[in-house]
Amino acid sequence: xAKIATVITDxxxxxxxxxxxxxxxxxxxxxVTIDTxxxxxxxxxxxxxxxxxxxxxxxxxNDFDALFIPGGFSPDILRADDxxxxxxxxxxxxxxxTFAICHGPQLLITAKTLNGRDATGYKSIQVDLENAxxxxxxxxxxxCQKQLVTSRTPDDLPxxxxxxxxxxxxx
Amino acid sequence: xAKIATVITDxxxxxxxxxxxxxxxxxxxxxVTIDTxxxxxxxxxxxxxxxxxxxxxxxxxNDFDALFIPGGFSPDILRADDxxxxxxxxxxxxxxxTFAICHGPQLLITAKTLNGRDATGYKSIQVDLENAxxxxxxxxxxxCQKQLVTSRTPDDLPxxxxxxxxxxxxx
Lengths: 171, 171
Known about the structure:
The structure is a homodimer. By secondary structure, chain A is of the alpha/beta class.
């Protein structure tokens, strides 16, 4: 079963955390929430609260099997922190399973990991994704090289959840 | 005196609207707030409220002398609306004075107007700006071709306000 690093902070899109979490845990996987410091509580756009398990200085990519980036404004806040960007980059460099929905791919852009890759994301970041060298797919979910799973919005969650669970099952 | 189109919606960075507004009005200019529809009230990240003067379908760039894009999460919400993106693009295409602070340049990226330009912006969008073809300057304010004024954060407001007022005075 996989141990999944989940980078998240305030203003996350509530269902884009809770719904994949439910699907991943139902499949037997474990999510570890990561922000600047352990023990803090972060708040979603619609009021959901999440307790942070680990601070970014406490974690190494080697401790995890996969990476999950929920959307909302959380990814944009996180990518202003070079430590989070470096952490995210290590998963992509190692071709570990990486799941990003909505604004989640913003962190992958700042980590400069999308050149030549196939991805989708929220409409507002489409030009950013294309400028980063990604081929943009206006589809509910896109699985690139059996490693990177991206989706656009909360409406895509059933497809996103299905593909991230399937991808981990295939490892 | 200039009539300044101000594109703004919920989650704007409060001081990045109120402070330039004060400086511009003190210099005799007029701001017209624009969002999806006239009459609605939008709310800043810290509680400031702004009444919207005009809906995006009611305005033409020819009615205005300059464009102002306050920061916060407002620009990212607005750039999901193709009408706002087209409106912003017309100011840049016509080389009209354009002022953007913090996340404001996100709208200029989606409008594909920054290739070969010099700009600054909030740290989180630095890679997006560079991927869009802009030269990024980590400075409190940058004036490009006496037309485009950008700044990084609320701390830069004194410099930003000075340069946008000066630029309009020079026209």
